[in-house]
Design brief:
This protein is mainly α. The protein has two domains: 8-107 and 168-230, AhpD-like (Up-down Bundle); 108-161, no CATH class. Helices cover 67% and strands 0% of the residues. The chain has eleven helices and no strands. The chain starts with 9 loop residues before the first helix and ends in an 11-residue tail after the last helix.
């Protein structure tokens, strides 16, 4: 795990926010998920505290921001690594101000059958990957059948397609920000296009990419080649 010396001061955090493409762009969840994937969970509370102070007007909006931050780290952990997600979510839990301590899972329990969740996962997967969805799922399943089943039923069915807290657009942006530190060009290319399919604009996708890359560079991440772009 990366050392505990803090790299992210207010000036750098401001520079991340300035990469946003609009005033309400969720820059903080993208910075946090990139940090989790980089394995720098100890930097996440600084992002969280800054966003609470500057991007939330009152306690209600602070609670929404907190829910989004935690949900983004949860969703990102299924791509960036569960142990990293555990450490990132623990860092957020320890940084919660007293007035925002609440149930650790803000999701409402869904009254859906396993087959309904699987179908929802297929729909989200197909919308994300568009015309190449069938080929991608076939490639995954041919490599290891249980991986394909888990992708549809669990990753996309139970988690990614649950949009109670993060919209499909926000979920796609989180996936992009998480994949950039992992240096996986084929998957990143698919999700850059998937962001468009899930309602993000070109400007939002480029902003998510820029924020994640800035975080990666600060954390010392090196890529073997060019980072995919639209």
């Amino acid at each position: 795990m990366a050392g505990s010396t803090l790299l992210f001061d207010n000036a750098f955090i401001v520079s991340l926010k300035q990469l946003s493409c609009s005033e309400r762009f969720p820059w903080y969840i993208l910075a946090a998920t990139a940090l989790s994937a980089c394995n720098f969970p100890h930097e996440i509370p600084a992002i969280y505290r800054y966003a609470l102070e500057h991007d939330a007007r009152d306690q209600a909006s602070q609670l929404v921001l907190t829910h989004k931050m935690r949900e983004a780290l949860f969703k990102g952990s299924l791509l960036g690594g569960l142990p990293k997600g555990i450490n990132a979510l623990r860092a957020i839990k320890n940084a919660l101000p007293d007035h925002l301590h609440e149930d650790p899972s803000p999701r409402v329990k869904e009254k859906l059958s396993s087959s309904q969740i699987e179908e929802r996962g297929k729909e989200f997967f197909n919308r994300t990957y568009g015309k190449v969805a069938e080929r991608i799922l076939k490639n995954i399943t041919s490599s290891y059948k249980d991986l394909g089943d888990a992708a549809i039923k669990t990753i996309y069915g139970s988690v990614m397609s649950n949009v109670q807290i993060l919209s499909p657009r926000e979920t796609s942006l989180v996936m992009i920000a998480t994949l950039i530190p992992l240096d996986v060009p084929p998957q990143l290319r698919g999700h850059l296009k998937g962001g468009l399919n899930n309602g993000a604009t070109m400007e939002e996708i480029r902003a998510a990419r820029a924020i994640s890359m800035a975080v990666c560079q600060k954390c010392g991440v090196k890529w073997r080649g060019e980072v995919s772009n639209l």
